[in-house]
Structure formats: C-alpha cells, structure tokens
Amino acid sequence: MPKPDRSNTIGPMPRIRFTTAYDGRPYLGWQSQPGGRTVQDALERAFSALFGSAVRIHGSGRTDAGVHALGQVFHVDAPDTHRIPADKWPTALNTRLPRTIRITQAEYVPPGFHARFSAAGKTYRYCISRAPVLSPFDAGLAWHRPLAWSTDILEQAVRLFLGTHDFTAFAALRGNEPRPIPADYFLRTITQAQVVQEGEHVFITLTGTGFLYKMVRLMAGAAHEAARGKITLDELARLINYPRPDDKSPFCAPPDGLTLMQVHYAEEAPGNKQE
What we know:
By secondary structure, this protein is an alpha+beta fold. Helices cover 18% and strands 27% of the residues.
C-alpha cells in the first residue's frame, strides 16, 4: 500500500489545493446559495459524502450563472484520517460528482495558502461564434454573433485594455462593496490581451491581476460593439482611460462564452509581457 503523501503539510488538518473544471450551464454560479444548485454546493456535497461530515471549501473567486471553468482553484482542510496521496484525490471526489464537474488536480500546500487571498491573477477566455447557424454543440458555450463585424478592430479594441486602468465603466456592483468605495477600488492591471480566430470561433483571452464583477463580459461586450462599428476606438479608449462617474460599458456580453482558464499564484504568475 502506498505511503500517504505528507509533503508540504503541517499539523493535523492538511490543506489541499484543488483545480476543478466545470460546465456552468446547469448551475447558478460558483458560490453556495439556498437550494444547492451551485458548483460549490455540489463540491461540498461530494466532500461531505467522503468525510462523513459537513465541509466548507474556499474558492479563488466566484463565477456567475452559466460561466464555465477549466482552472478554478479552491482549497479545503481535510481531516487527518483522510491524508491520502495527492494523486488519489481526483478519483475519490470525481466518483461523487456530477459529470459536469471534474477535479483535475490536487496537491498538498502549506497551511498559509489561501485559494483566494494567495492568488496573483487570473486568465479568462471569451468565445464568440461567427457561424451563420450556431452549432448545437456550441449552445451555452459561445456567444453567437454571425453578423458582419471586424476581427481586426476587435483585436485593436482588446489591446486598449492592456496596462493599469480605472475600470469603473466595466464593473457591475453587487451591493456589498465597501462604503465609501476606496479611490483605487476599480483599479486593475491587464497584463495580457489577445484575440485569436480558429475557424468560426474567435477567442478573447485576458490575463489580469484581478477582475471586477462582470468585468470580462463588459469588456468583451464593449470590444465587440467597437468591432461592429457601434462605438469608435477613441470612445472605447476614453471609457478605459478617462471614465466619468456615470460611464458604463455599452453592452454586457452573455455568460455563455466565458471560461475561467487559470488562477495564477506568485510562484507561477505569468510575466508582464503584453501580447
């Protein structure tokens, strides 16, 4: 029988970092809600079934209803009785999860690690379908925009987001923001911004130090409005660089095409190369 993997663990409650992928279509987002129809609820039910007691997991952040993930990260403190090798955790949990959620990786981490507060940045990808007729295999996974618009202008628009800006115009409010809102609350840095077309799919990929509520969807929506000539690049640049208190992105893209690709931590954070 293999020996338990105790590397990087201290104390009676080993902390484990998990990476999970999920199809967001069946769920009301990541964060636990009454009724239990969220990704967090499904994961906590799997842990509770495994441990025999209620478990709380801690995610790197929320995703909204209908938003997907390939690299969401969360951590949990496991009972000492379940200190099994790290590579055995995915199988132990996936057998207890719906097929739309999968644990892809697990590793023991120091007790000071926190999935949310230790994060250095995130990468999101937004998928747009240009197909005349949306494939049924893209339903809920891509934003269908078949009408004429320019991929070149979309790329120019997306590159305007690079750098540190006040993203007031690209943030929705949850209602739980600190009051008064600090002057730098909406300040974020986008380190990578890229547009790639693969067949009838166009992918917008954004990496940043952090993202505000609905920020990526508002950015994708505004960039697409520029691509189809509804706003100019100069108007978009003003929203990014000189936002007024009442400024808002002209369109919020739907959740369908959005995927959280990766959560970055200090030892693995991408460089500041602007692509």
